[in-house]
Amino acid sequence: MLMKKIYIAQRFEFDSAGSLKNDIRSLLLGNEKYLLNDLGKTVNILGDEYLYTGPFFNEKAAEHDLSASFGKIVVEAEKKSIDNCNTFVVIFDNEVSPGSVTELIYAALKGKKCYVFYLSDKNKSENWFPIEFSKLLGDNVRVIPYTNKDIFKKEILSNFSI
Asked: Options 3.40.50.450, 3.10.560.10, 3.40.50.300, 3.90.190.20; which CATH number does 4-158 get?
């Protein structure tokens, strides 16, 4: 079986203690330390079926300093990670993530198999524009609503099949 290389875009989800342990990617990877990996590395998830290509949280990039060269390094590494994946997943919640929106558009235009999960409140979402726009980018984009973040995490963790 061919290993699926997967990129999972979402804003990083920190708890009140500053931990990423409840971020869906940390849960899929089995430990938040894998989400804090070096740029450009990959991590096997769910046995040998999936290879997680990114993104990885980097504290220096989180400073949002446009004058620092490190931001460019992070963007280039994430672009390369998307180039190397064959499946792109984005998870939108109630907050707009400009990085995730940009990555979605890039992945869709590159022809990657894309899954857009979005938190829907009575068929409404703060991310309505990128969701609607992504539908126009090709048949490679599948849009899937979810209504409860905790239930969604349990469902995707128990039945991860993309």
From this structure: 3.40.50.450
- Average pLDDT for runs of 10 along the chain of length 162: 81 88 83 72 66 75 62 84 92 84 93 89 77 87 83 66 57
- What is the number of alpha carbons within 13 Å of residue 122 lying toward its C-beta? 0
Check if the beta carbon of residue 54 is closer than 8 Å to that of residue 46: no
What was the pLDDT predicted at 157?
58
Strand-pair partners of 88:
7, 114
Strands (E), the chain: 4-9, 43-45, 50-54, 87-92, 113-119, 141-146
User: Given the structure tokens 């040998």, which residue do they identify?
Assistant: 48
Closest CA to 157 of 13, 22, 51, 5: 22
What is the DSSP secondary structure assignment for residue 37, as one 8-state letter? P
User: In this structure, how many other beta carbons lie within 10 angstroms of the beta carbon of residue 139?
Assistant: 6
Radius of gyration for the alpha carbons in the chain, expressed in angstroms and rounded = 15
pLDDT computed for residue 28 by the predictor: 80
